[in-house]
Amino acid sequence: MSHSRLHTELCELLGIEYPILQAGMGRSKGLITTPELVAAVSEAGGLGCIGGEGLDPDELRATIRAVRRLTSRPFGVDLLLPAKREPVDLPVAELRDYIRSQHPDHARFMQSLYDRYGLAQVPYPRQYTVTDTLIRQQVQVVVEERVPVFVAGLGDPGPFVPALRERGIKVLGIAGSPRHARRQKAAGVDAVIAQGYEAGGHTGNIATMVLVPQVVDEVRPLPVVAAGGIVDGRGLVAALALGASGVWCGTLFLFSREANVHDAHRQQLLQAAAEDLVVSRCYTGKPSRVYRNEVVELWQRQGPEPLGFPLQMLLMDDFVTSAEAQGRLDLVNNPAGQAAGRLTAVRPAGEIVRSLVAEAEEVIGRLSGQPVQRPAGGR
């Protein structure tokens, strides 16, 4: 079977060979999606994507330029643009004071966590968390650097679309419901990522199998990218059968050699059952699928109702920074999707892309009555 069977309208839109997009997995500090990971996915014919959430503007610019030194192929930047957030646009130091004065119960609960684990407090080192100021600065870097693709997570990219379009940047928006998808279409995006409940990190309430065809019908003729629970070629073919034009894979690339992931966190995921990946608001204030550790359980049993985004995020960014500094990675959030337990080995990102393609070709060939000989050495 020729590769044209997998060459969709999404490939034409983004200038890529295969409809495989590596999700821009962000973290509050630093990178999961290293330049090496992003470039390797793009070089293999997919679209690599920088998760820029935890980068200040200078770091984001440097990361974009590092990717360009490694590949001349298209790549993207994924940023958080939360539609619903607390109306506070303050530097981190002032935001801490605000939380202590306005939310003393939360401050006391956090102190109880530090005491419980004997953690010295190491403050989150950024000047800003994800507030309006940081978002504007980050998007401006994307515009100035003419990144080929921009992906908007959690909200509406509408205010930024004209400036992005003026520089020839394609805009994708993530949606967890048909309502979100309508909002993305109205904002002027070029394609919609329909992310199902199974996905890691920030997620909605509708399963991928249900969500994708609804979004396809809702935003037609825009291409739709399926996300959530897709870790092999069977998932890619299923997404295409549902009407999607491609897939957005995050958890799959946590197991790439180039990803910046703690070994302890990979071990958690290797041993995880689907029910060990739970949705909690405790780390960011928004529903996010993470590995169920003791901190998640303590918030659920004893903690106050989590604050809104980004106040809860800052509370926990300080805690996570402290835990990481003292080697307590078991207390650090580990976002991943429910399919994590199906992954068994760490491989180069390019090999992951090629395996996904080969598996999809095999499935399509089998379904069409034209079996494809699969090369040795699968996942």
Please supply descriptive tags for the structure shown above.
eight-stranded parallel sheet, three-stranded antiparallel sheet, 379 residues, 12% strand, TIM Barrel, alpha/beta
Walk me through what this model shows.
The chain is an alpha/beta fold and 379 residues long. The protein has a domain of 254 residues: TIM Barrel, CATH 3.20.20.70. Helices cover 42% and strands 12% of the residues. The strands form two sheets. It has an eight-stranded parallel β-sheet with strand order 1-9-8-6-5-4-3-2. A three-stranded antiparallel β-sheet has the order 7-11-10, with no helix packed on it. β8, α10 and β9 form a beta-alpha-beta unit. α2 packs parallel to α3. The chain is globular, with a radius of gyration of 20 Å. The two termini are 21 Å apart. The mean pLDDT is 94.
